[in-house]
Specification:
single chain; 298 residues; mainly alpha; 72% helix
Length: 298
């Protein structure tokens, strides 16, 4: 990779500012001057508060539907269709279970990848610092200063950007400056050439990690998938509500328990959907620890 190409990452991001707005969540990418919508509030809430809100909506909607359907369609008439309704809800339940489990696995994999990227980036920066030791004494301070500048940009500016579901671009200039500093190193012997090549290899990997972190910070589950999941949740609860059961209280309790179970699954998916967004997001602690351990960093 040539120095001009490395600098180009900072000068020409892969997406324009409009296209870089977060995908997959209504209201994401809100600026501080805009009002917070309900979906923004839900994603920004702690997990326990998010779970209470989603559960309250699910149980409240189920209770309202029970009273409405019982008034419009008496249970004596609904009981005549229990056999076919039981078969249909079994089919719907299997399809919905497959859908919700697939989505849960997807968001869990995204969260794991987001956490791994932070540790890998910290390991790569630590490897960069170790490689600096083999460089000539007079060029080490400049390279270390660029590494420290990149660490500061990522921790102090990029992580707050990702907490707002924005594309992290504060460190692009610092990483491009680090590449230029490495490209300008003198290579008068084999040892210096080998050291410079190792530094470039580490920086190339940092660019790849940044792209992965940026994608995870600005994209979530597609709105089409969310629509299908929500419609499947409603269909599953409606089938349960439409059963004709003699004991109304028992029927209401079982239907609300089903809605609560679905709400818990939805809460887990929402909480893991955007790994760098909100109060329970992936922290930058590995990078903070690395910065604290660099005794030359001021």
């Amino acid at each position: 990779m040539a120095p001009d190409r490395a600098a180009g990452y900072a000068r020409a991001p892969r997406r324009t500012p409009d296209a870089a707005r977060p995908r997959g969540r209504i209201g994401a990418g809100r600026t501080d001057g805009e009002d917070m919508g309900f979906v923004d509030f839900l994603y920004a809430a702690p997990v326990w508060q998010m779970g209470c809100i989603v559960s309250a909506i699910a149980i409240g909607g189920t209770t309202f539907s029970m009273f409405l359907i019982d008034r419009l369609w008496p249970k004596e008439r609904r009981r005549l269709h229990n056999d076919i309704a039981g078969f249909l809800i079994a089919v719907v339940g299997i399809v919905y279970a497959i859908l919700i489990s697939s989505l849960a696995i997807t968001v869990l994999a995204r969260k794991d990848r987001a956490e791994n990227l932070v540790y890998e980036e910290a390991d790569r920066l630590a490897a960069l610092e170790r490689e600096v030791v083999v460089l000539p004494q007079d060029v080490r301070p400049a390279i270390r200063a660029e590494i420290g500048a990149y660490l500061d940009a990522v921790i102090d500016r990029e992580w707050p950007q990702m907490h707002r579901a924005e594309r992290p671009d504060a460190g692009e200039g610092a990483l491009a400056a680090l590449w230029r500093a490495v490209a300008a190193l003198p290579m008068t012997n084999l040892a210096e050439m080998t050291g410079a090549q190792e530094l470039r290899r580490h920086i190339d990997r940092l660019y790849e990690m940044r792209r992965g972190r940026s994608d995870l910070a600005t994209s979530g589950v597609d709105p089409v998938v969310w629509t299908v999941v929500l419609l499947g949740s409603v269909a599953t609860v409606v089938f349960a509500v439409m059963f004709g059961v003699e004991n109304f209280v028992a029927h209401l309790f079982m239907s609300c328990l089903l809605a609560f179970s679905i709400a818990l699954a939805m809460t887990m998916i929402v909480a893991l959907d955007w790994p760098y967004y909100g109060p329970d997001s992936v922290p930058s602690q590995p990078l903070i620890d690395l910065r604290a351990n660099l005794d030359w960093h001021s």
